[in-house]
Amino acid sequence: MMNAEDKNLLMNQVQTDVSLISFLIVISVFFIGSLLPKFNSYDLSVDIPISFLIVATFALLFSALILTNASQIIIEGDLEKVKKYLTNGYAISEYMGVFLFVLSIPLAVSIITSDFYLRIITFCAAILGIGFYQFMGFSLLERHFSKKSRLFSIIFILFGIVLFASQIYAFHFTIVSTAFLLFVLLITALAPLKNFQ
After folding, report:
1. Is the CA virtual torsion 91, 2, 79, 15 positive or negative?
2. What is the pTM of this model?
3. For the segment 19-60, what is each residue's pLDDT rounded down to a tens digit?
4. Could you tell me if 105 and 31 are in contact, meaning their C-beta atoms sit under 8 angstroms apart?
C-alpha cells in the first residue's frame, strides 16, 4: 500500500511523462502531415518511413492513455497494478514510440530531399542521439533488460545504420524494415515480463 506522499509523487511523475509523450505525438503528427501531401503515389521507400511514423504516433498515443489510466490505480493504491500499467506504458512509449520515431526521421528526410548533406546530418544526429541515450544509461533498456541492455543497444544502433543505408541504396529495404519492426515488437512485448528484467 502506498502512502499519500508516494501517491502524489507518482501522480506528478505520470503527469509529466504524459505531457512529454503528448508533445512527441504532436511532433510525429506534424511529420506525417508534412509528408502525406507531398506524394501522389507511394512506393515502399516512401511507405515504410511514413508507416513507422504512424506506428510511433499510435504507440505514443496508447502509452499516454495507459499512463493516464494508471492515475486511477495510483489513487486506489494497488501497487502491483500500478507497476503493470507503468511498465507497459513506458515500454510501449520507449520502444515502439520513441525509438521508432527517432529512427524514422532520417528515413523520412531521405524521401523528402535528395540532398546528401541534409540526409547525412539528419542520420548522424539521430544515430548519435540515440547512441548517447542508449549507452549513457538514460534508456529504459537498462531497467528492463539489465543483462542484455548493451547488446540490445548495439542492435538498435546497427538497425538504424542498416535501415538508412538500405533505403539510400535501395538494397533489401523492405526486409530490413520488417526485421527491425519485428525486433521492436519483440523488445516491447518482453520488457514488461519479469523473467526478462
Report:
1. negative
2. 0.87
3. 999 999 999 998 888 877 776 667 777 888 889 999 999 999
4. yes
